[in-house]
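Is this the right way to post structure tokens for a design question? Let me know if I should format differently. Anyway, here goes:
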């Protein structure tokens, strides 16, 4: 993906991406200048993550997550790629005890739930 530069975008311009994380299809919306005024030095970026079938993922139980990022260079570590950022976030969150317990319970099923 071509490197995105948040400071060069129009205010409220939204980019849509689709990807897959561990068998879960995701839609990612990315606004590199969310509610920024022209000439604003402080840029707020906005990312929305949705699992297509509302599947639980490590960062949300509902299949939806909204995330605000402050500053124009917050995604530099991910080559300004919001998809790469989200996938790294999911990979990191999938290492938590809570997520591992969720996976284990999902495999076993729940006779009482």
């Amino acid at each position: 993906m071509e490197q995105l530069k948040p400071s060069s975008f129009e205010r409220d311009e939204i980019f849509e991406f689709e990807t897959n994380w561990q068998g879960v299809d995701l839609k990612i919306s990315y606004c590199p200048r969310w509610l920024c005024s022209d000439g604003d030095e402080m840029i707020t970026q906005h990312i929305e993550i949705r699992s297509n079938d509302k599947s639980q993922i490590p960062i949300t139980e509902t299949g939806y997550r909204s995330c605000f990022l402050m500053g124009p260079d917050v995604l530099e570590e991910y080559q300004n790629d919001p998809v790469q950022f989200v996938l790294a976030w999911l990979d990191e969150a999938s290492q938590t005890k809570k997520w591992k317990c969720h996976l284990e319970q999902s495999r076993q099923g729940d006779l009482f739930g």
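Format looks fine. Someone answered above. Worth noting: The beta strands are 15-21, 24-31, 44-51, 64-70. DSSP finds two helices and four strands in the chain.
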